[in-house]
Amino acid sequence: MATRPSADHVLAGRPFPLGAHPEAGGVRFAITSAVADAVELCLIDSDGSERRIALTERTFGVWHGLVPGVTPGQRYGYRVHGPYDPARGLRCNPHKLLLDPYARQITGGLTDLAAAQGFTGDPDRGPMSTVDSLGSVPLSVVTSPGGPDTGAHPEVPFEEAVIYELHVKGFTQQHPFIPEALRGTYLGLAHPVAIEYLTRLGVTSVELLPVHSFLDEPSLVRAGRHNYWGYSPLGFFAPHAAYASEPGHEVEEFRLMVAALHAAGIEVIVDVVFNHTCEGGPDGPTLSFRGLNAPVYYLHTDRGHMADITGCGNTLEAGSPTVVRLVTDSLRYWTQELGVDGFRFDLASTLGRPRGGAFDPASTLLTAITTDPVLSRCKLIAEPWDATGEGYRVGGFGAQWAEWNGRYRDTIRDFWRGATGVRDLAYRLSGSSDLYDHNLRRPWQSINFITAHDGFTLRDLVSYNEKHNEANGEDNRDGTNDNRSWNHGAEGETGDPEIRALRTRQARNLFATLLLSTGTPMLTAGDEFWRTQHGNNNAYCVDDETSWFDWTPDDPEAETMLAFARRVVRLRANSPALRQPEFFEGRTTPTGKPDLVWFRPDGEEFGESDWFADRRTLGMWIDGSNSQARNREGALVPDHSWLLWLHAGDEAAEVVLPGREYGETFKPTLDTSTGDGSPAYLGPLEPKSRVTLQSRSLLLLRAPRLAAEPPAETY
Fold first, then answer.
1. How far, in Å, CA of 295 to CA of 290, rounded?
2. What was the pLDDT predicted at 671?
3. Most CB contacts within 10 A, which of 210, 566, 615, 648?
4. Distance between CA atoms of 428 and 426, rounded to whole angstroms?
5. Alpha-carbon distance 659 to 85, whole Å?
6. Which pLDDT score is estimated for 680?
7. Residues 315-354 pLDDT 10s
8. Are residues 353 and 390 in contact, defined by beta-carbon separation less than 8 angstroms?
9. Alpha helices in 519-574 (DSSP H)
10. According to the 3-state scheme, what is the secondary structure of 678-697?
C-alpha cells in the first residue's frame, strides 16, 4: 500500500477532549503518549493508501492538531515513534498502525496476527518487528456528534428493578417474526416483537453483554475460533460494528435501540470490561494501548513484566490517571450521548487494585466513578471478584455500588439440591444484610441471581452434574467445575417423565426463590423459556444455536415455564412488601409483631438453636403493614403480609400455619408444585391450619390486610 508523506497545514488545536472531533472546517485530533518522541496521524484513503501527518503540538503529554479538510467518515490511525524497551515495558513501534483509544467508530478487524505483533521471536527479548501492520488491523473512523434521540431515561427505582441479562445477537438471531436482515442486531432488539416480549415478561432493565467494540483474543485467533460473548474489548467508545444491520451505522442503530427500549419504559444497562483488553499478554498484537505507552495503560511489575490478575493476559492499570480519564470519559459518553442508564463492571475488583495491590473500595478509579456528577446517577453494578483470591470482594464495595451476589447464587443452588441447614438461606432471602448492612447500602444493592451468561442455564443447572464444554475446543478443561448442579437422575436430556417433572419443579423453585427474595433479581435471557446449552457452562466462543435464544423449542415445558415466569414477575411487581428498600430490623410493626419472623414446620418461631440444626424446611413471614416500599412520589405503600414456605426435602412435609396474630386468613398465591404456579388449593386457610408441602416445593400465601383485596388476576 502506498504511503504518501503530507505537508498539510496543521493548526495547533487543543489537547482536550481526546479523540477526533469535527470542528472549524476540519477535524481536531488528540491522543496521549507521554513517552513518544513523535506521533504521526495516518489518514487512510479508500484505496488503502496512507497520508502521514506529524502532530507537532504536545501539551500535558497529549499530541494534538487540527487538520483542515478532513470530514466525518475518514479512516485513520496513529504511528508512535519512541522507546522500544520491553525490559521497561515500553513497546513503541512506528511500524504498527494504532487505533485511537477514543475512536467512536471502528472498522475492520485483525486479519494477520503476525503482522500486528510488535516483536520478532521472543516477545520480551526479541527485536522490534519491522513488518507494517497497515491492512491487517482495525482502523478508527471520524464520526459526527449527535444522532437519533435516545428518549428520556426511565429512571426505574432500584427497588422495582428486574434485570434481564441478554446478548444482543443471541436474543434475536433466530426470531421467526423479526425480519431476517435485523436478526442479531441492535435494530432486532428494538423491533416491536422483541420489545413486546420483554414488556410482557415484566422486566424493567436489560443488561447487555459487552457492546464495546471487541476482537477475538490471540488464543482464539490462533485456534481459528471466535469470541461470542464480547469480553475482549478493543475500543471503549465505539459500539460493536457487527451488531449493526447496516455496516457503518452502528452508532445510529444503537441509539435507535435505546430509544425503543426507553419508549417501553425499559432501562439499558451495559456490561463494560475495563479490566483488560484484546491485546492479551506480551505475545499479543500491538493494536493500540501497547504501542502508545504500555506501562501507563497496563499493570506491570517492577521489572517491566506485564502482570495479570484478570486471567486474560493483561490488566488495565487502575491507578493510572490516563486510565482513570479513559474509563470515566467512556462512561460519560455512553450515558450522555448514547443514552445508557447504567453499567455492570466486569471483574470490578481490578478497578480497586491500583498497581495490583490490595483491594481498596476508596481507590482512585472507583471514587472517580461514584463522585462524577453524571455517573453517580447511573445504576453502578460491580462483579466483585477477579482471577485472584485477593479480588473476591462480595460485600466489600463502597456505598454507591450494587454487586452481583455470588453468595446468593451458591446458597440458593445448594438449598434446593438438598444441602441441610437454613441459616445462610435466611440471610439471602432477606436481602443479605450480613454482606451489605454495614456500609450505608440498601437491600436492592444485592443483585441476586441463580444463573448468568457464565455458567449453566437454569435448565442445564437441573439437568447436568458435569460441564460438557467439548464444543469450545479446549478438551473440556475450560469453565468452572463448581456448578452446584444436580441432574436429578440422568445426565442431560431424558424422556423419563418423572425426572422431567422433577427438573421443571426444581427450576420453578429456583426461579420463584429469586423473584421473592429481598434484593434485585437478575434473570438470564432464555431461562424463562427453558433454554439449554446442552451442558456447556462456558460458551464464550460458541456462536451458533447452542448460545442463541430458541424461539420455537420442541419442548412442551417451554411455554409452561414462560407462563410461570410471567406470573412470578407480575406477583413481585404488585407486592411492595416483597421488594422492600430497607433491611428488616426486627422492628415492632402495627400488628405488634416484628417486621420479619421465621417459622419452623410446627408453626412456632425459630429459636436460636434452630438456626444450627439440619433443616430443609423454612417459613418466612413478612409484615406488609410495615412495608418500607415507596411509590414514585416517595410515599410509603402498604401491602398484604406474606408467608413463604420453602421445602427442599425429598418427601412431602406437613407444616402448621402461624396463629391469628400473623393473619386472619392465609390465601395460597403461588405453588411450584403446579406447572404454572397456580395453587393446588385456592380457598383461604385458617390460622393454625395444617398444610402439606409437596416434596421439593415452594408455597407462598397472602395474609390480606383489612382493606379490600386486589383482583386475583393481579397475581
1. 8
2. 98
3. 648
4. 5
5. 77
6. 86
7. 999 999 999 999 999 999 999 999 999 999 999 999 999 9
8. yes
9. 557-573
10. CCCCCCCECCCCEEEECCCE
Is position 383 annotated as part of the catalytic site? yes
Cell numbers found for residue 295: 506501562
| Overall size of the chain counted in residues | 715
Question: Cell 433454554 identifies what position?
Answer: 531
Q: Which triple of cell numbers denotes residue 404?
A: 452481583
List 252, 308, 383, 543, catalytic entry = 383
Cα–Cα dist 670/681, whole Å = 10
d(CA 169, CA 185): 6
Q: How many CB atoms lie under 10 A from the CB of residue 83?
A: 12
How far apart are alpha carbons 83 and 100 in whole angstroms? 19
Q: What Å distances lie between residue 291 and 32, 127, 278, 297, CA to CA?
A: 11, 15, 13, 10
Report the alpha-carbon distance of residue 252 to residue 243 in Å, rounded.
Answer: 12
Q: Residue 482: which residues within 8 A CB-CB, separation 6 or more?
A: none
Catalytic residue among 250, 252, 341, 346: 346
Residue 557's SS3 state is helix
With a CB cutoff of 8 Å and minimum separation 6, the contacts of 431 are: 437, 443, 446, 517, 518, 519, 580, 583, 584
Alpha helix positions (H), 266-419: 289-297, 321-336, 364-371, 406-416
Q: CB neighbours of 132 closer than 8 A, spacing ≥ 6?
A: 95, 96, 97, 115
Integer Cα distance of 661 and 200 in angstroms: 37
For residue 179, say if its preceding peptide bond is cis, omega within 30 degrees of 0. Answer: no
**CB neighbours of 366 closer than 8 A, spacing ≥ 6?**
351, 352, 360, 397, 398, 401
d(CA 24, CA 648): 69
Report the C-alpha gap between 364 and 125 in whole angstroms: 34
283, 264 Cβ separation under 8 angstroms: no
Please, how many CA atoms are within 13 Å of residue 474, restricted to the half-sphere of its CB? 19
pLDDT, position 714? 52
Sheet holding 617-622, edge to edge: 596-599, 617-622, 641-647, 697-703, 667-671
Contact 696, 671 (CB under 8 A): no
Q: What is the pLDDT of residues 148-180, one digit of tens each?
A: 999 999 999 999 999 999 999 999 999 999 999
Q: Which alpha helices (DSSP H) does 90-239 contain, by range? A: 113-116, 168-172, 186-190, 192-201, 218-223
CA atoms of 365 and 546, how far apart (whole Å): 37
Q: How far is CA 346 from the centre of its chain?
A: 7
The residue behind cell 480519564 is 325
Q: Residue 139, SS3?
A: strand
528 tagged catalytic: no
H or E stretch covering 703:
strand 697-703
Q: Which residues in the chain show pLDDT less than 50? A: 1-2, 4-7, 707-713
